[in-house]
Structures are given as C-alpha cells and as structure tokens.
From TrEMBL:
Transmembrane segments: 403-426
Alphabetical keyword list: Disulfide bond, Glycoprotein, Membrane, Signal, Transmembrane, Transmembrane helix
Record flagged with keyword Membrane: yes
MF terms (GO), sorted A to Z: ATP binding; neurotrophin receptor activity; transmembrane receptor protein tyrosine kinase activity
Listed GO CC annotations: plasma membrane
Stored InterPro entries: Ig-like_dom (IPR007110), Ig-like_dom_sf (IPR036179), Ig-like_fold (IPR013783), Ig_I-set (IPR013098), Ig_sub (IPR003599), Leu-rich_rpt (IPR001611), LRFN (IPR050467), LRR_dom_sf (IPR032675)
Biological-process GO terms, alphabetical: cell surface receptor protein tyrosine kinase signaling pathway
SMART domains: IG
Official protein name in the record: Ig-like domain-containing protein
Keyword Transmembrane helix among UniProt keywords: yes
Lineage, broadest ranks: Eukaryota, Metazoa, Chordata, Craniata, Vertebrata
Signal sequence residues: 1-28
Domain Ig-like: 191-276
Length: 456
C-alpha cells in the first residue's frame, strides 16, 4: 500500500518536472538573445535576429519592461503585431541595425513606453501615427538618414529645440545634411478644422446638420467620429467639406459629442460639438423605502432640461422641510438619481408617495406605497419594531449573543442542580433508611475518611 503511494508521488513529481521543462521551453529566449524575467537583450552580431524577438508565452512577454537590440545587420522592420504582447514595456532601444520601417500601429499596445532609442538605424521616414499616443518626452533619433520632407516635419514640431540638443540632421534630395530645426517646407502644414454650428439643441426625434470644413497641406483626410451615436446619420463629403445629417435624434445621445477629424502627414486636428437633446421626463425608477442613515425612497429620473420634482403624499402635495426633502446624489449622462429623504418617519408617514417630474417638454409620474411603522393601536403596543429588517442589521448578532448567554446559564443551572442532587444523594444514601442503597453504587469508591456503616 505504502510503496504504491510512493510510486504515485514519484510519477507526480516526474510529471511536474516535464511540465516545468515544457513551460521553460515555451518561454524560451530567441537563440541569439539573452533574457531574464524583465529584460530581453539581442546584441550578438554574428547570429543576428531577422524578426523582432518574441517569447512563446504571452504571459512572459507581459513581464518584460526592457528590450535592447543592437548591432543587427539583418533586422529591417517593426511591424503591427511585433510588440503586441509587451504591454508593460518601458524602455525600447533599437540601435545600429538596418531598421527601415516602423508600422503606424507598431506601438499601439505599449502605452507604458517611456524611453525610445532609435539611434543609428536606416530610418528615412517616421510617421507621427506610430508615436502619437505614447507618453515619451523625446524619442532619440539621431544617426538616421531622415529625409528633409514634409513627412518628417512633425518631428521638428515635436522636438523643438531638443532636435538641436540631439544634433538631429535631415538629408536633402541632393544628399546634403542640414539641422532639423532649420527644416521649413512650403505647402507643409498641419490641418485645421472648422465645425459649425458650435451648439446643437434639438428636441428628441428631430434632426440636425453639422458642417465641417478642413484645410491644410498636403490636403487632409476628413473623418467623422460618430462611433458612439445611437441616432441615425448620413454623411456627404465633397472635397474639403463634409455634411453630417443627424435624424430621429435619440435621447440616449444627449451629452455625447460628435467630432470632425482632419489628418495629413504633418499631424491631426479635431473639432467637436456636444449634442443637447431635449426630451420630456421619464421616471425610470421609484422603489420602496430603504433605510441607511436616513430613510430613503429612491428614484431615478431622466429628462433634459433637468425635470422639476414634486411629491404627493396620499394625493396631497407634500411640503418639504427639515425632516422630509428631495436629495439628488448622482447625475449620470441623462439621469438624476436621488432620494426622498425622511428623518425618523413614524406611522404618520405610512402611505402612498407619488413623484411628479415635469419640464418644458412633458411630465411623468409614478407612485409607491411605503410603510414605516405599525400603527400604535395595532396589536396593542406602540413600540412594535419597524417592518423593515434592514433597520436593525445587528439584531441577529444580538440574538446570537443572548442565545449564547442562555445556553451558558442553562448549563450552569443543570450542573449546579446535579451537584446539589449528588450531595443530597450522598448524604441520604449513606444514612438512608428508605432503601436507596442502590444509589450508593454510583459512589462506591472507597471513602476511608468517612466510612458509612451501611457500606460495610
Ligand atoms: C535582468 O538583467 C538586467 C541586466 O542584465 C538586470 O539589471 C535586472 O536586474 C535583471 N532582472 C531580473 C529580474 O533578474
Ligand atoms: C530605461 O532607460 C533609462 C535611460 O537609459 C534608464 O535610466 C532607466 O533606468 C531604464 N528603465 C528601465 C525600466 O529599464
Ligand atoms: C535603407 O533604406 C532605404 C529606403 O529607405 C533602402 O533603399 C536601403 O536599401 C536601406 N539600406 C539597407 C542597408 O537596408
Ligand atoms: C508620463 O510619463 C511621466 C514620467 O515619464 C509620468 O510622470 C506621467 O504620469 C505619465 N503620464 C501618463 C498620462 O501616463
Ligand atoms: C471616437 O470617439 C470616442 C469617444 O467619443 C473615442 O474613444 C475614440 O477614440 C474616437 N475615435 C477616433 C478615431 O478618434
Ligand atoms: C451632397 O452634397 C452636394 C453638395 O453639397 C449635393 O449636391 C448632393 O446632392 C448631396 N448628396 C446627398 C446624397 O445628399
Ligand atoms: C426613431 O427612433 C425610435 C427609437 O429611437 C424608433 O422607435 C422610431 O421608429 C424611429 N423613427 C424613424 C422614423 O426612424
Ligand atoms: C398577535 C396578534 O394579535 N396579531 C394581530 C395583529 O394585528 C393584525 C391586524 O391588525 C392581526 O391580523 C393579527 O392577528
């Protein structure tokens, strides 16, 4: 039996080792690189890399914070998916390689990248789209054959005086070099956007037309960002102008923004307008009272402009004051969430509560019946507990406590009674003339100090 178990254990260990081996293998470092948990380094010139180094396990790649690539003669490109799993990458160095292209989406998943060193590669062009979302103060770019072309002008705009500090040059068509900071080209400017009208206020179900004009050189591309809209729309673009026709506007789009985006090789610009969609109130929630610090009849009301709220108690206007009042505690996109708050309500407050919500475009009402306390004449007592057990969350605990006390007292009482009984039995047992000798059997241990005559 034992040996069988041991065999089992050894098999299990063996399996563990195999799995561990597999796991290690799957996280393996590319042959010509060295890796530890947080760093990948590829500096071997002879057995160089051709593709961006990848580990076979996604999870291992997430741990990597630094990648260092140097002296690689066959490394040319960083593509869309190469850095996809290096989500926590902070430092990237690619230097002295043949790196020629970096895709627009190469760093899309690398929001934590802080340090980017691309010195001494073969980059003629680098797009702002590759780096636009990164939080890098200055990428290091010197030693690349960057062209003095409009595609690279954004680098001058981004780096400013830093380009002189890095001694960053660009290459003119004839092959001459000149400082980046002196780069200025005709017909090369980041785009501008004009969106009109600047305000849109429309009643739900209505329609609106937005017009966007863009300018810039080279000629910018025009895009609308309407991805989050629920309302129907149509776009009509011609040349540098576009119309966005919104129809059957939905109240769900109230507060959302519509943007017109212009982009060219130099950069991008955006203009936005927030939709103000007017709609009648709707009470989306009104529920039974709950007790927190105060009593609260919770409600949610949608509506634009903000609805005026009024309460009726059993059909009669409820005056609000120090003890009863409406409190709004949260405002989301379209809705106001709040409470009718009551301080120490009594049976007098039992009844039907009606919420009226009103604005320029309509009104809504809903009712709820709340019962705070039993009436004093019911079952005779004025101090009956509240109906809602939420009020006294600690009651069960107290009950448990008192139950425990009862149990202890009970046990003590039983023990004490037993003790007394025993004494009586001992006493009477020994001197009994009532024939309860039998009981003595329970105490037949020798009692030398006081040997009773009967036991002899
Ligand atoms: C990985 O290696 C680098 C230098 O080679 C070292 O600074 C770092 O502490 C190492 N990290 C781990 C987790 O071993
Ligand atoms: C990143 O590079 C900078 C500059 O070389 C260095 O100071 C920093 O320690 C590096 N950070 C990491 C996480 O390797
Ligand atoms: C460097 O890049 C240019 C294109 O930008 C290409 O024609 C050239 O072959 C590249 N040089 C090397 C050594 O790969
Ligand atoms: C950008 O990086 C700096 C440090 O380099 C950091 O202090 C800052 O919080 C970062 N900002 C964002 C939005 O990540
Ligand atoms: C469109 O707008 C949404 C939010 O309004 C934003 O998250 C998204 O990035 C925008 N898309 C583009 C392409 O600008
Ligand atoms: C698009 O706009 C042009 C000019 O503004 C107009 O002539 C054309 O009829 C419009 N097309 C549609 C489908 O609305
Ligand atoms: C307008 O939108 C509402 C829902 O948002 C839909 O029920 C209605 O059919 C739409 N009307 C038209 C004319 O498309
Ligand atoms: C125990 C007792 O008397 N319960 C009564 C309390 O009052 C309600 C109605 O008011 C009766 O239905 C219960 O029988």
């Amino acid at each position: 039996m034992i040996s069988l178990r041991r065999g089992h254990g050894m098999a299990r260990w063996g399996l563990c080792w195999v799995l561990l081996g597999l796991w290690r293998f799957s996280a393996a470092c590319p042959a010509s690189c060295t890796c530890n948990n947080s760093r990948i380094s590829c500096t071997d010139e002879d057995r160089g890399i051709v593709y961006f180094p990848l580990l076979q396990s996604d999870i291992k790649m997430e741990d990597v914070t630094e990648i260092y690539i140097e002296n690689q003669n066959r490394f040319f490109a960083i593509n869309d998916k190469d850095l996809k799993f290096y989500r926590n990458l902070r430092n990237l160095t690619v230097t002295n390689t043949k790196l020629t292209t970096i895709s627009h989406r190469a760093f899309q998943n690398n929001g934590k990248l802080q340090y980017l060193n691309l010195k001494y590669n073969n980059l003629s062009f680098l797009s702002w789209k590759s780096l636009r979302h990164l939080n890098i103060s200055f990428p290091l770019l010197s030693g690349n054959p960057l062209q003095c072309r409009c595609e690279n002008v954004w680098i001058r705009q981004w780096l400013g005086e830093e380009s002189d500090r890095q001694e960053l040059d660009c290459v003119e068509d004839g092959g001459r070099r000149r400082p980046f900071s002196k780069l200025s080209l005709p017909d090369c400017a980041s785009p501008t956007v004009k969106l009109s009208p600047s305000r849109i206020s429309v009643v739900e179900g209505g329609s609106a037309v937005l017009v966007c004009h863009v300018a810039g050189a080279p000629r910018p591309q025009l895009l609308w960002n309407v991805s989050i809209l629920v309302s129907s729309y149509e776009v009509n673009t011609s040349n540098l102008m576009s119309e966005l026709c919104l129809s059957n506007l939905s109240s769900s789009d109230n507060g959302r923004s519509v943007s017109c985006i212009a982009e060219n090789v130099v950069g991008e610009n955006t203009a936005s307008v927030v939709l103000d969609i007017l709609f009648p109130p709707e009470i989306t929630k009104l529920t039974d009272a709950v007790s927190d610090h105060h009593w609260c009849i919770p409600f949610s009301v949608a509506g634009n402009p903000q609805p005026e709220l009024q309460w009726l108690f059993n059909g009669i206007t409820l005056p609000e004051g120090d003890y009863i009042g409406t409190k709004i505690h949260d405002t989301s996109e379209n809705e106001y969430h709040g409470c009718l708050q009551l301080d120490n309500p009594t049976h007098v407050n039992n009844g039907q509560y009606t919420l009226l919500a009103k604005n320029k475009y309509g009104q809504d009402e809903k009712s709820v019946t709340s019962h705070f306390m039993k009436e004093p004449w019911e079952n005779g007592t004025a101090t009956d507990p509240l109906y809602y057990d939420t009020t006294t969350e600690d009651t069960p605990l107290e009950q448990e406590d008192s139950a425990a006390v009862y149990v202890v007292v009970g046990i003590a009482a039983v023990a004490f009674t037993g003790f007394v009984l025993m004494l009586i039995i001992l006493k009477f047992g020994r001197n009994s003339k009532f024939g309860i000798k039998g009981f003595v059997l329970f105490h037949n241990s020798p009692q030398p100090s006081n040997p009773g005559p009967e036991t002899r």
